[in-house]
Amino acid sequence: MRKPVPGCNQLILAEDDGWAKPEDPFVRFLKAGRPVGPWMLPVIDTASPVGVDSIDPTRIALHLHAFYVEELQAVLKRLRRNVIRPTLFVSTGDGKEARVQSALDDYSGPVGEIRAVPNHGRDIAPLLTLFGPTLVQEFDIFGHLHTKRSLHATNRRTIDAWTSFLMENLLGGESGGAMSDRILTAMTEDPTLGIVYPDDPNILEWTENLGPAQNVAEQMYITHLHNHFSFPMGNMLWARSTYLDRFVTLGLCWEDYPAEPLPIDGTSLHAIERLLGALLKRIGFGKAVTNVGGVTR
Amino acid sequence: MRATSEIEYAYAQADALLLSFRLNPLPNVAIDMLLIGKPVFCFARTTGIAGFLREAGIAEHCAAQYLDATEMAAKIRCLSDDPAPLATVAERGAAVARQSFNAARYAERLDEIAISHLPKHRQMAHDIAYIQESVALRRAFCAPIRETDGTEEETIRRYLESNRIGH
Questions:
Q1: A23-30 — which CB contacts under 8 Å span 24+ positions?
Q2: How far, CA to CA in Å, does A243 sit from each of A50, A238, B156?
Q3: pLDDT per residue as tens digits for the range A102-126
Q4: pTM of whole model > 0.90?
Q5: Considering only CA atoms, which of A1, A48, A12 is closest in space to residue A169?
């Protein structure tokens, strides 16, 4: 199922307005004069303002989970489209630290730490368990990105398109320009924004992950999860520390994450990815999505 | 038995039909046997005939528990030993089969289904026209990357259809 426009989730619309209506929910939304509500998220796009003077760059960090170190240069190239140079925290595979260090030689911003991690917990364990406590204490806003790569040629085009979509939205590039500066501007101007992530045109919801999500949510004293929501599909985002702190303080240890090889769905990692987008209002935050015209998947 | 052009002869020679397989939705041999008033046996939760026997009210005599060969043998023996219920089952099966497996009724039902979808078809046309006129749908965003060559109407139609079927 696809969304009609960036920011819109027609299933949330339908749930609010009633399912048993002949017209499509998007048509009803248009006829009603595009009412404001959780079905339409604010969109940060290439027309959104850049106001870096109001941003304290020392309070901005970026976590890169660089399992594929060779992809790091492309990430840094996109980052150079922006004025703000976040403090970098990089997790990588065992024995790859020197290659990461070498790749970061040209980076003109600060490098906080480079750490080798086990192949366990994908990008989420390094985010929440390894760097999370430092990030939420020492920074106001931080990004989270990871290198993606398909080892199978048949999936390569799909993964490349998805990676390009995520990076163009969150950092910028030829089409997006200075997207991370725009996101950081929006988050600085609106302190209620808990996270910002690319609006994936596809609608995906709990699938096999409601049970694991309920287990995690209960640890956060949240008992009811909504059926319809959007989340940072692909788990790349910019987050406010005070929001992500609720996930960091779950206190997950490395052994709490499921072991590789992971199934394609239905693990606590897939659940956390969804909860990052599903719990904002419950924790008292709002969210925004990004869109770069002409970049889709 | 191999394929034969003398299937009517085979029906006439048979006292009953046992459908031992699980997956054929509505085997013609079973329909033919029911129509000529011969009992058809099958296992519950297999084929469309199991449902037919239930709806005709004769499953108690002709449908054994799922893949329970012992119970099946008992049911066949029970009917073959007692002509009274055998006649009732055969008569009831034939009567309900004549109502159910009727080409004219089948065509009528297809008409009913088509007519019931007309309002949805009209609604779809209305929704497509409204979205097109409003220029509100972002085609470059909504269309999957592999389908960006299609027309605007195709993108809107696919969007609406996927909402309707839910994926």
A1: A23/B123, A23/B126, A23/B127, A24/B127, A24/B131, A24/B160, A24/B163, A24/B164, A25/B163, A26/B131, A26/B136, A26/B137, A26/B159, A26/B163, A27/B127, A27/B130, A27/B131, A30/B130, A30/B131, A30/B134, A30/B136
A2: 23, 11, 37
A3: 999 999 999 999 999 999 999 999 9
A4: no
A5: A48
A4 in contact with B, Cβ within 8 Å: yes
Q: Which of B145, B161, B165 to mutate to test the interface with A (most CBs of A within 10 A)?
A: B145
The answer for residues whose C-beta is within 8 angstroms of residue B67's C-beta and 6 or more apart is B22, B43, B46
- The ipTM estimated for the assembled molecules is 0.89
Contact state of B141 with A5 under an 8 Å Cβ cutoff: yes
**CA–CA distance, B98 with B95 (Å, rounded to integer):** 5
pLDDT at A151 (0 to 100): 65
Contact check, Cβ <8 Å, A3/B141: yes
Amino acid at B79: L
Are A85 and A61 in contact by the 8 Å Cβ rule? The answer is no
Instruction: Out of A5, A161, A291, name the one closest to residue B137 (CB).
Output: A5
Distances (CA, A) of A105 to A66, A94, A178: 15, 20, 22
Beta strands in chain B (DSSP E): 17-19, 40-43, 63-64
Query: Which amino acid, residue A204?
Result: L
**Tell me: the pLDDT tens digits for A149-166?**
766 666 788 888 899 999
Q: Phi and psi at residue B117, in whole multiples of 5°?
A: -90, -10
Those residues with Cβ within 8 angstroms of residue A117's Cβ, 6 or more apart along the chain or in another chain: A91, A92, A93, A94, A125, A126, A130
- What whole-number distance in Å separates Cα of residue A270 and Cα of residue A206? 9
Nearest CA in chain A to B140: A294
- Nearest by CB to residue B142, choosing from A2, A24, A294, is A2
Residues of chain B with pLDDT under 50: none
